[in-house]
Specification:
single chain, 50 residues, mainly beta, two-stranded antiparallel sheet, extended
Length: 50
């Protein structure tokens, strides 16, 4: 599956983003207004590292 969109969103570097692409597996990409919500990934299990 490709996660590419036909037109990338170009936001200005010193202003808040005003649009983003919402991409969900199995659905069509949807352009949404505002700033993309943050996503936090939990840390991987690090018991094997020393």
């Amino acid at each position: 599956m490709s996660y590419e969109v036909s037109e990338p969103v170009l936001n200005l570097p010193f202003e808040k983003p005003n649009r983003y692409w919402y991409i969900q597996e199995g659905e069509q990409p949807e352009q949404r207004e505002g700033r993309r919500p943050p996503v936090v990934f939990p840390p991987r299990d690090q018991k094997g590292r020393e």
